[in-house]
Specification:
The chain is an all-alpha fold. The protein is 87% helix and 0% strand. It has one domain (2-205). The protein is globular and about 50 Å long.
Length: 206
């Protein structure tokens, strides 16, 4: 039984490494789509002039669900293109790797949604927590995907830590800053990484 389990895991790792180029190609449109969504969401949130922490968290949770849906559609399209099952063993491994940090980020958000806390201080600490946990999720996925994903994850972790320290000492808690922080860090970060992947893959193909 132990040998079978080790053999299965080794085969999955080999498959993921062999498909690293394919994952890299799929990541470019995926990260660009998420980046555009994040930037547009920040613009919409600014126009809506969200007034409460509950409204802010609820809005960005909806945006995160939309981004997950975009990722699902693009990954499914890639699987169909390569004539592979969507929910394969490698896909399950990647999902299991990123699920705990993303779930923790959701749990941190729910009390603000359900209990309608009024302190903006919680929001200005929640955003760095989202960044750090999301960076951990990307870093975990990087064990099965190209090395750049790990570095991308580290960028979120470091920015999140720096933002937490700044918020503790500066304490300038305004909704405009919170929305633009989400748009710049999440939306802009994904958009920049997606554009980088697009041009590097195009250069490699040539």
């Amino acid at each position: 039984m132990q040998n079978d389990w080790a053999s299965e895991n080794l085969q999955i790792i080999r498959t993921l490494m062999e498909r690293s180029a394919m994952y890299r190609r799929a990541l470019a449109p995926l990260t660009i789509a998420i980046g555009v969504t994040g930037v547009l969401a920040a613009v919409v949130a600014h126009a809506m002039d969200l007034e409460t922490p509950r409204a802010f968290v609820s809005f960005w949770l909806v945006v995160s669900v939309l981004c997950l849906f975009e990722a699902f559609v693009l990954v499914r399209r890639q699987a169909l293109k390569d004539r592979e099952p969507l929910w394969s063993s490698p896909t399950r491994r990647v999902t299991q790797a990123i699920a705990p940090p993303l779930f923790a980020g959701l749990l941190l958000s729910l009390p603000i949604v359900f209990f309608n806390t009024e302190g903006w201080f919680l929001i200005t600490l929640l955003i760095p927590a989202w960044m750090i946990l999301y960076g951990c999720a990307l870093h975990s996925a990087g064990f099965f995907m190209p090395r750049g994903i790990k570095l991308f994850g580290w960028s979120f972790i470091l920015v999140g830590c720096a933002a937490a320290v700044i918020e503790i000492f500066v304490q300038n808690h305004i909704i405009v800053k919170a929305n633009w922080a989400m748009g710049i860090c999440f939306g802009g970060g994904h958009l920049a990484y997606g554009i980088y992947l697009y041009f590097t893959e195009r250069r490699n193909a040539e």
